[in-house]
Design a protein that fits this description.
Mean pLDDT of chain A: 96
Number of helices of chain A: 3
Number of strands of chain A: 9
Number of helices of chain B: 8
Helix content of chain A: 10-25%
Radius of gyration of chain B: 21 Å
Number of domains of chain B: 3
Radius of gyration of chain A: 13 Å
Strand content of chain B: 25-35%
Shape of chain B: globular
Number of domains of chain A: 1
Mean pLDDT of chain B: 97
Largest sheet of chain B: 6 strands, antiparallel, barrel
Largest sheet of chain A: 6 strands, antiparallel
Strand order of the largest sheet of chain A: 1-2-3-9-8-5
Order of helices and strands of chain A: EEEHEEEEEHEH
Strand content of chain A: 25-35%
Number of strands of chain B: 19
Shape of chain A: globular
Helix content of chain B: 10-25%
Distance between the termini of chain B: 50 Å
CATH class of chain A: Mainly Beta
CATH class of the largest domain in chain B: Alpha Beta
Structural class of chain B: alpha+beta
CATH superfamily of the largest domain in chain B: Probable tRNA modification gtpase trme, domain 1
Low-confidence stretches of chain B: none
Distance between the termini of chain A: 14 Å
Low-confidence stretches of chain A: none
Largest interface: A-B, 13 and 16 residues
CATH architecture of the largest domain in chain B: 2-Layer Sandwich
Order of helices and strands of chain B: EHEEHEEHEEEHEEHEEEHHHEEEEEE
Oligomer: heterodimer
CATH superfamily of chain A: RNA polymerase II/Efflux pump adaptor protein, barrel-sandwich hybrid domain
Chain lengths: ~130, ~375
């Protein structure tokens, strides 16, 4: 189960890559393995305001549907439109080509509250 | 209360293959080995192996076995020839479905009843009560493993490791023989909508049978788990107990009135209630729905009429790998007509009524 050290994580199995002033988010390897094949990702709208801990999208797999939760409050500045035709990228490359959206946080300080890799590994091994 | 989860005889095989395991009906079963979509597609285009050792096997034997089963189930097992099988149902006196079953006639005085894992103990108890003293009812679940090969190439692969002429075996036929040199009852049955075979053998022989089948094709035959089994049966329009079938449903609601043999001369459990239901018509209708959105209808989601009234409920829904769109079965009020919507987590998504099955290999 891959948990890249340089990323931050949420209790809801999202990863967050912090790059300058933005946060790129996706779902973790653990999450995709639990879900099975992803068949559809309902993306937030570019420009949408999101609230930390509130759903901002959906991930549909063969067996279930899961909400995508915003890890921080902010504005969606970019979404991965490639997922419309290739939702399976979440399974194939969850930390790369399977990224879901980029959020510009209202308060970058909120990012400090996210789990680090060690904390996330404890959560999934728990 | 602690519950014991049972392992099938193929536990170590699944571990070797890196399966994701899940608890199902008290058994630890393989959910998927890799991509469930790839496993699904393997069954549609090639072949794949399933471990179905969780299924219940109950033998009904003795000179009165046929007559006893004719009373116990709504079909007509005594009319089966040796070596043939039928899909049938065990109904309660009020006509509600206790389980759906496959009954194989393995010999003049021996029938094998295959029940859903979750229902095996209740089916066993009902059969014991309904068949005694005319026949002997024996739970053989513990001494029976079940390996299945399903898919258009399965027959050719199986033929290389069995002494039976499986290519000439009729659909819903079965025979005693050997697979990988192990004694087995081999039947041309399945739950996928494809040609396929089910191999009943001793638990200790399951691994040898599995390994021989897995090696029976160049490059090997892949394994498929419960996730693929569910999407395969749904595409094939086959009902699942607990979803489309249950105590509150008669075979008529499920569109399976043909399995109720009211033309049987003798009484059977549920006859009066089923005859009345046949005369008055079903109280609900099972329909197929094609989603016109990529959001997937799931079990329990409400089916809505054009003006937003709740007229039914989804019983099973999944993204269909073969059709490339979400599909669902649903019970709706008998007079409800489309167009329908489905309440997918608070937002109504359009759906189109379609005939069942969603997928027919003969077309």
């Amino acid at each position: 189960m891959s948990v890249p050290a340089e990323l931050r994580y949420t209790q809801e199995h999202e990863w967050v890559a912090i790059d300058g002033g933005t946060a790129t988010i996706g779902i973790t390897d653990y999450a995709t393995q639990a879900l099975g094949d992803v068949v559809y990702v309902s993306l937030p709208q570019v420009g949408a305001a999101v609230t930390a801990g509130e759903p901002c999208g959906e991930v549909e797999s063969t067996k279930s549907v899961s909400d995508l939760y915003a890890p921080v409050a902010g504005t969606v500045v970019e979404v991965n439109g490639e997922l419309a035709d290739a939702p399976n990228r979440l399974n194939e490359d969850p930390y790369g080509e399977g990224w879901i959206c980029v959020i510009e946080p209202t308060d970058a300080g909120e990012l400090d509250a996210l789990l680090d890799a060690e904390g996330y590994r404890k959560l999934i091994d728990g | 209360m602690t519950s014991t989860v049972r392992d099938t005889p193929l536990r170590t095989v699944h571990e070797r293959l890196g399966a994701t395991m899940t608890e199902f009906a008290g058994w630890l079963m393989p959910l998927r080995y890799g991509s469930e979509t790839a496993e699904h597609n393997a069954v549609r285009t090639n072949a794949a192996l399933f471990d179905l050792s969780h299924m219940g096997e109950i033998a009904v034997t003795g000179p009165g076995a046929g007559a006893a089963l004719d009373y116990a189930v709504c079909g007509w097992p005594s009319r089966l020839s040796v070596g043939r099988a039928r899909y049938t149902m065990l109904c309660a006196p009020d006509g509600g479905i206790i389980d759906d079953l496959i009954v194989y006639r393995q010999a003049d005085e021996r029938f094998l009843v295959v029940a859903n894992a979750a229902n095996t103990s209740v089916v066993l108890a009902e059969l014991r009560e309904r068949c005694s003293p005319r026949a002997v009812v024996t739970d053989e679940s513990e001494v029976t493993g079940l390996v299945s090969i399903q898919g258009p190439n399965g027959c050719g692969f199986l033929s290389t490791v069995t002494d039976l002429p499986v290519a000439s075996m009729p659909y819903y036929g079965g025979a005693y023989g050997t697979v990988a040199g192990r004694a087995a009852w081999v039947a041309r049955t399945g739950y996928t909508g494809e040609d396929g075979f089910e191999i009943f053998c001793a638990p200790a022989d399951c691994e040898a049978v599995w390994d021989a089948l897995a090696a029976s094709a160049a490059g090997g035959v892949p394994a498929a788990g419960l996730a693929a089994r569910d999407t395969l049966r749904l595409e094939a329009g086959m009902p699942l107990y607990g979803n489309e079938l249950g105590r509150d449903v008669t075979p008529y609601e499920a569109g399976l009135g043909r399995v109720v043999r009211l033309d049987k001369p003798d009484d059977f459990v549920g006859r009066d209630a089923l005859a009345a239901r046949a005369a008055e018509g079903p109280r609900r209708t099972l329909i197929g729905l094609l989603a016109r959105s990529r959001r997937v209808p799931r079990h329990g989601f409400a089916v809505l009429s054009a003006d937003g009234e709740r007229v039914g409920e989804v019983t099973s829904g999944a993204p269909s790998p073969t059709l490339g769109t979400p599909i669902a079965m649903a019970y709706v009020e008998p007079d409800a007509g489309g167009p329908f919507g489905i309440d997918v987590r608070g937002k109504t998504e359009p759906a189109e009524v379609t005939g069942l099955p969603f997928y027919d290999r003969r077309k």
